[in-house]
């Protein structure tokens, strides 16, 4: 009996010691004197979360919503007239809280379909359409300094339907839903090497609704259902906001009891390898999607262009762009004109200056960085030049302000 008591006591001591050690490690990582979790943000960097920014704006009487990626709705899609739908844009006609990578949140007034463009773009003839993810949406600069806004200065009939979190399938859907009715002469498909193939495409292929865009002619009728869909999206987010609590922390205890910093370090150290079979499937899926996009655009007499956007590590030469050559080879086989921006970024005298690197360097490991004003200007110039060459006509001179 005494032996059992002695064993129990030792077990308790071991358990207590391990628990104390784990939480001592968590406390060390919370203060992080060695910056193991990465550089610290500047003192003036706004670290509020999206929900709290939305709450603050609503407290001022401003109807605000955050960006809501298509994946937000995969598990519980809005139901319109008894039909589940996957939105491919944000909440229309609202102040949209977009992003913060330079220290201050950037917002915009969404148009009638929930995109970051002037509402009147839908009343004009569309000559150019920009399709892609958050880079095309304009993260994280004011609209007039995004490459969409800069291109619109030269070509007034520029339709921007880029949106946060879009991968290839959502982009194909965007062409079908919003671009095809406008029939522009030039459609620019922006491919971001940081996540389009590795993360976004596999996730989208799990959506029964998004996969249907591979069927010629399939549409969810998102434009026609915009008003009803808007109400369902508002209710869906408002319900989540009500269930959540404000994110401001008055002490380190709540998050650290959950070992937040320790789990973040372990997650960062884990390397996920992609099997050769899965990698081949992703390339195959990408080709299928691009073939259907090309067919859709050429059906109305338009031309599909492919734009390759580099991520930060690749642009500054800290990592190889593993998919670059293979993706562009596949695109060349499809006969698509290409705007490859990798060399433009790498050959720039100060590649980091094309990103909000100094302000957002602590975000690089977890969220990545989008382009700053200089990066947007570089993209705009290349795309404008491509349009001018493809149009075979004299276009307005590219303004110096694109710099």
Descriptive report:
This protein has helices at residues 2-31, 50-59, 134-137, 147-154, 168-179, 196-205, 208-211, 226-243, 253-257, 260-269, 276-299, 312-315, 324-333, 342-346, 357-360, 373-391; strands spanning 64-66, 79-80, 83-84, 95-99, 106-109, 128-131, 158-160, 186-192, 303-309, 338-340. By secondary structure, the protein is α/β, with parallel strands linked by helices. A hairpin with a 6-residue loop joins strand 4 (95-99) and strand 5 (106-109). Helix 4 (147-154) packs parallel to helix 16 and helix 5 runs parallel beside helix 11. The longest helix is centred in the N-terminal third of the chain and has 30 residues, at 2-31. It is globular and about 85 Å long.
SS-derived structural category: alpha/beta
Total discrete domains: 1
- By CATH, the superfamily comes out as SGNH hydrolase
Strand content: 5-15%
Q: Main sheet: which strands, in order across?
A: 7-6-8-9-10
